[in-house]
Specification:
Helices cover 46% and strands 14% of the residues. The protein has 258 residues and is α/β, with parallel strands linked by helices. The chain has a single domain, classed as TIM Barrel. The structure holds 1,3-dihydroxyacetonephosphate (13P).
Length: 258
């Protein structure tokens, strides 16, 4: 069976010293575990080096939260995929709903970001998900299907094999309202089916599809136990070492129970 992935997205939280404390506490917690789960920590850009240094002594990998769609040059404030790679960052979140909503990132722009990451051997964690309004009107299937088609389906089979997908219903992010395991499973199965139709059964089976949205130590085990949920992308609960480690433990339990 596949092991799980648990990724922490710190978003725009923590000062330098708070980040140092959190990374230290998470490292300590993980070092006590015989891990099968792949743990990823995605701090803000300024703390990436601190995280990659700590990762050398622990069993997690480091991801960024964003990347530029451009290769290099006069793009003030942007960070390129090559820069991330040169800092030993091997993973990067793309298309988070907060970036789509607040920074008006489009599917086309996100396709370019995915290309930049793959060209630099960085694994994209590509986020999809619907708003409450879209879910209530039944438009979520088209929305999620469109996000996959527009930003990922130009990739070749050997390229999409290096992408992690995260289903993050917008209505569940930071709201305390989690998708039920049934809701999560239904969408994850839909995403896997879309991948299967385009790329075949093996690619669909192997691709990781994470759930994100108010995932916490109390609901992680039930969510991760769903057949098509390969782990989680954790926001708020990744900011407390104890909660994050408890979620990693839930992933370990799922793998062992399989
Ligand atoms: P919360 O876990 O805080 O709901 O955030 C989820 C998320 O957006 C992770 O990327």
């Amino acid at each position: 069976m596949k092991n799980k992935i648990v990724a922490g997205n710190w978003k725009m939280n923590k000062t330098f010293s708070e980040a140092d404390d959190l990374i230290y506490a998470i490292s300590e917690g993980l070092n006590d575990m015989e891990l099968e789960t792949d743990v990823i920590i995605c701090p803000p850009y300024p703390y990436l080096e601190m995280a990659t240094d700590a990762a050398e002594e622990s069993n997690f990998t480091v991801g960024a939260q964003n990347v530029s769609y451009a290769e290099k040059g006069a793009y003030t404030g942007e960070v390129s995929a090559a820069m991330l790679k040169s800092m030993d960052v091997d993973i990067c979140i793309v298309g988070h709903s907060e970036r789509r909503a607040y920074f008006k990132e489009t599917d086309e722009e996100l396709a370019k970001k995915v290309d930049q990451l793959l060209a630099n051997d960085i694994v994209p964690i590509f986020c999809v998900g619907e708003t409450l309004e879209e879910r209530e009107s039944g438009a979520h299937w088209d929305k999620i299907g469109g996000q996959l088609e527009n930003s990922l389906f130009h990739l070749k089979k050997d390229e999409i094999a290096n992408v992690i997908i995260a289903y993050e219903p917008v209505w569940a992010i930071g709201t305390g309202k989690t998708a039920t395991p049934q809701q999560a499973q239904e969408v994850h199965a839909f995403i896997r089916k879309k991948i299967e139709e385009k790329y075949g059964t093996e690619t669909a089976y192997n691709i990781y599809i994470l759930y994100g949205g108010s995932c916490n130590p109390g609901n992680a085990l039930e969510l991760f136990s769903c057949q098509d949920v390969d782990g989680g992308l954790i926001g708020g609960a990744s900011l407390k070492a104890e909660d994050f480690i408890a979620i990693v433990n839930a992933a370990e339990t799922c793998t062992k129970n399989d």
